[in-house]
Amino acid sequence: MKLLNLVTTEQPETGNAFHFPQGMTGFPESTNFAFIYNGSGNIICMQSVDCPELAFLLTPWDEKRLGAAPQLSEEHRQCLKLGDDESPFWTLVLNPFADKTWVTANLQAPVAINMEARTGLQYIHCETGLELRYPWMKQPEQAA
Predict the structure, then answer these.
(1) Distance between CA atoms of 1 and 58, rounded to whole angstroms?
(2) Is 76 helix (H, G, I), strand (E, B) or coil?
(3) What percent of the chain has pLDDT over 90?
């Protein structure tokens, strides 16, 4: 699945938003998000419609690098409105500010998205061995 499939609009609008019934960690009141993508690379911006200054950078889950994506409980599947045969589109939240050398990925709290139902949730792992700041990619070179 491609990131371009997530794009709802260039400017977030409630009618085009994806609904996150539980919000995101630390922001439970922000439940509607739009995806902004310029059409290149594998990073997308997920911006809150409810609170426009709130935005997250996401990248697709990489099975070659991380192994299989998490398995959702039945409760989480219902929250996402997933059918028995459906799988969510898994993404990771990126943090470009936590490390001077690396853009880090939060493996403890990936984001699951149901494209058809336009729903999503941040899945908090109970596993303590997963990294909060996994080195995902080198920081881009600074412009001179």
Answers:
(1) 14
(2) helix
(3) 70
**d(Cα 15, Cα 66) in Å, to the nearest integer?**
34
Nearest to 114 by CA among 81, 141, 137, 140: 81
- Residue 48 β-bridge partners: 33
Measured CA to CA, the distance from residue 101 to residue 39 in angstroms comes to: 25
Per residue in 50-77, pLDDT tens?
899 999 999 999 999 999 999 999 999 9
Token look-up 């990126």 returns 94
CATH topology of domain 3-137: BH3618-like (2.30.290)
- Distance (Å, rounded) from C-alpha 47 to C-alpha 69? 23
Q: Which pTM does this prediction carry?
A: 0.86
Q: Between the CA of residue 130 and those of 30, 86, 144, what are the distances in Å?
A: 26, 25, 36
pLDDT digits (tens, 9 = 90+) for 87-103: 999 999 999 998 899 99
For residue 9, give the nearest of 121, 88, 118, 120 by alpha carbon.
Answer: 118
